[in-house]
Amino acid sequence: MMERKDRFRHESLQDKKSIQQLLNAISKGIAKGEISFSDEEGGIVLEPDGLMNLKVTASNDDNRCRIDVRVTWTPETNGKKDTGKLKVKA
User: Fold this and answer.
1) Any idea of the CA torsion for 5, 1, 63, 27, to the nearest 10 degrees?
2) Within 13 Å of residue 21, how many CA atoms lie on the same side as its CB?
3) Residue 10 and residue 13: Cα distance in Å, rounded?
4) Most exposed residue of 32, 38, 55, 62, measured as fewest CB within 10 angstroms of its CB?
5) How far apart are CA 31 and CA 49, in angstroms?
6) For the chain (length 90 residues), average pLDDT per consecutive 10?
């Protein structure tokens, strides 16, 4: 669902294999320095570079599980230091 010209949002039901493929594509896009998101409503291309801020939250409340992964960057973050290592186990 397209909200604004400079913003992209999409929500849909997916199975775990489809989500894994989408996350892999995002990972490859970060490595390449270009990620393209699109659906029938529109699209956006982002160019990740330099140091990026990673925020991960996970919860299991009232039988509703949730994982949020947020990656943000700006040109000003290139000089900042890493604040710690995240451990994720499968």
Assistant:
1) -60
2) 5
3) 10
4) 62
5) 9
6) 72 96 96 94 92 95 94 73 71
